[in-house]
Specification:
The chain is built from seven helices and 18 strands. By secondary structure, the protein is an alpha+beta fold.
Length: 403
């Protein structure tokens, strides 16, 4: 009797949705325990699902673009050594698919077959974007949208719709990029945040002269120790100091109370090119000095950009920093709060500006490295005087950084 082992999606995953992105093995491949089999893209990270034991990949139950709920069966392994596996027929070998949705070949994934039945589309008429040219659920969804926008398309690709006809298309060429799970998650989270909380932004201007001098004096020594001293490390340390002055900023709104956290767990927004962004968390930042903050930042940033973050490293934040100035913006408003937190800090582009400084009782014109710093707050949790008091302390710590 054949002994098979199910390959399943993790029970615990970041967010509520994961999507199959890429099978690294094919049916009939011999695998060893721990070999990477398939990549899942969750709302926040891309993770590899490994083989639970030695065996032969006997079934792929979900294909590229399919939703994988926690615990869902992705495929199966045959654990009988040497068992000959029958590879599925190639696309050139299979019979042409019937135009009737119910007769769609089992060559397609369950999600594609389900879409074919619901949409009345024949996947055999589509050019697949998945591995090896396979048709994915995203291809079916795109075909549905195209059939609505182009009612003159062949009957096999049209879907009856009671919705109003869309507006005439914009003239000129265009291309469609399916949303990734991460992009959809960010979109939902941002919309939900704005719908949930009244958000107000206050803006200060900070002089970076002191932290630039300190960084210049210490960055080479720290680099020799394998630590890159970034400006963001200073922002984390200054945020901790400001939290001590106005602890209500490190909070969460409840309908009957304001929960103020003792631990300051600061999420750092990291952009992942056009995929979206993540905010890995520096936990208990109030217990760390500048150097360990810098080391922790470097580690999280490196692993975020190589899709190596663990799910737990993206959870439990009580405050978030968005250093949007690194991509060139002077000011972003509002920087949407990472719900259910009560506030988010924004750091604008560092640039030299002409400012007025009093020296010996005389106003002088000087050139200083300046940046706009903003705090967007949930106005249910905080008022303007608390917001400004927090920013005042944050600004003071940066401008009076000891040398």
């Amino acid at each position: 009797m054949t002994n098979t082992i199910e390959i399943t999606a993790p029970i615990e995953q970041e967010g509520t949705r994961a999507v199959v992105r890429n099978w690294l093995k094919q049916i009939g491949d011999h695998v060893r325990e721990g070999d990477a089999l398939v990549e899942l893209e969750t709302d926040k990270v891309t993770q590899e699902i490994s083989a639970p034991c030695d065996g032969i990949l006997s079934e792929i139950a979900m294909s590229d673009g399919d939703d994988a709920a926690p615990g869902a069966i992705l495929g199966r392994l045959n654990v009988e050594a040497g068992l000959a596996m029958e590879a599925p027929a190639s696309p050139l070998q299979r019979e042409p698919a019937s135009t009737a949705p119910a007769a769609v070949s089992s060559y397609y994934s369950p999600a594609v077959r389900k879409a074919a039945k619901e949409y009345g589309l024949d996947p055999a008429n589509l050019k697949g974007s998945g591995r090896g040219g396979r048709v994915t659920r995203a291809d079916m969804d795109h075909a549905l949208e195209m059939s609505k926008s182009h009612p003159s398309a062949p009957a096999s690709q049209r879907v009856p719709s009671t919705e109003p006809l869309p507006a005439p298309p914009v003239e000129g060429r265009s291309r469609t990029i399916p949303h990734s799970a991460m992009r959809l998650s960010v979109a939902r989270h941002m919309a939900q945040s704005l719908a949930t909380a009244p958000q107000v932004t206050a803006v200060f201007e900070a002089d970076f002269t002191a932290i630039m001098r300190h960084r210049e004096s210490h960055k080479d020594r720290m680099k020799a120790e394998g630590i890159i001293l970034s400006y963001t490390a200073y922002f984390v340390a200054a945020s901790v100091a400001a939290m001590k002055a106005v602890p209500e900023v490190n909070s969460r709104w409840h309908e009957d109370s304001l929960e103020i956290f003792e631990d300051i767990n600061i999420g750092i927004g990291i952009a992942l090119a056009d995929k979206g962004l993540v905010a890995p968390v520096i936990r208990q930042a109030q217990t760390l000095s500048l150097e360990p903050i810098a080391a922790r930042l470097q580690d999280l940033t490196n692993r975020a950009r190589s899709n190596a973050l663990r799910n737990e490293e993206l959870k439990g934040g009580t405050f978030t920093i968005s250093n949007h100035g690194v991509s060139g913006s002077l000011l972003a408003s509002p920087i949407i709060i990472n719900q259910p937190q009560s506030a988010i800090l924004g750091i604008g582009k560092l640039e030299k500006r002409v400012v007025v400084r009093e020296v010996g009782g005389v106003d002088t014109i000087q050139i200083r490295p300046m940046a706009y710093v903003s705090l967007t707050i949930d106005h249910r949790s905080l008022d303007g005087h608390q917001t400004n008091a927090w920013l005042t302390e944050f600004q003071r710590v940066l401008e009076e950084w000891p040398q």
